[in-house]
Request: fold
Amino acid sequence: MAYSKKTTHSLLDTLKRIAVVLDLALLVWILWSCQPSTASARQASSLLAQASPQDALLVAAPDGRILCEQNHTKPYPPASTLKILTATAAIHHLGESYRFHTEFYLDSKHNLKIKGYGDPLLVSEVWQEMAQALAPRLQGYQDLILDDTYFAPNVGIPGVNPSTNPYDAPNGALCANFNTVFFKRDKTGSIVSAEPQTPMTPLALKGVRRLGLTGGRYAFFHDSREAALYAGELLVYFLGETGRDFQGRIRLGAVNPEDTLLYAYRSPFTMEATLQKMLEFSSNFIANQIFLALGAHVHGPPGTVEKGVRVVSQYAKEVLHLSDIRIVEGSGISRRNRLSALDMLSVLKAFEPYRGLLTAKGRVLYKSGTLKGLKRRAGYVEGRQGGPYYFVFFLNRPKADIDALTAYLLESLDHRLND
Reply:
């Protein structure tokens, strides 16, 4: 029997709908009807077979229908999965093509001034690049004045402690190397940089000697203004390599309207590329730089935690229609952040066009997070046809096997095709 093109398309659409219904029905049966006594060893050991009452689980179909849930409306600390919300708010307000910038001025007394706007990726190679671009425009200069007023000083990110761990590095409008220092000791015991592109500056050397450490990457600067001075030392060093000698002082100050703009550096990394790095390395520093920049962009400088909270919370309420979440910073390092697995599902739906920025393992794209006693994972499983499935795992036991649960979910989704 021959069918018209219209009839053929109608049949195909019907078959696709039937296949989706079968997929969903079978998935629900697998997730909830599987018994340890009859399941495979992997199913028997899966988290669903031994979920604790406090765990929150959610799996949703490409059309958003919830297939599996437990405690999905209860708010929990999201840990680093919060970075997905920060990323989504940044794309909404700044745009995926936004680039951070840093400006260089000369005042009437030939002082060189740097104004920072929170670029989180100002590593040593970038400071060297900026020095090389600036040198032909600069015949000489007196003091180096650092303007970090785009962010409030010492903003105090909730959850960040005054330790030497890199994830406790302070945020600021003018930074270098994520406000950390990577060093080692040579054969003579002398303190030297552990990376060839970075000199050991006076402030960095002072920090190492003060703590008596043997080597590694550490956060020595717990004052954002001291971190800005460290960035200034790097610039002076790299300008010296170009023949621009410096005999003045490195100090804090502000750019004035009458100062002359010499050079404006624009990051080669778009916001999308910056977010990819934030998610790949789960960088709390990058997340909160973006969080503070959002506050300054929407509500005016200086950027503060309170302004960042206002921006992200308002975005969640007005765009994602989430009214019961609690956000206190942008990285997830604070246990005071709260949202539910159902809230995270809304975040995942909004972030779906950018899911390729997440960690990929086969067909699973995800962001993990860990706080003491907590394990988190949220993301997508690419479907065989159509859009991705969504999943959120908020596990509240330190020994919970989140990798096994993720593998079990993927196996369950694939079960029908392999049956």
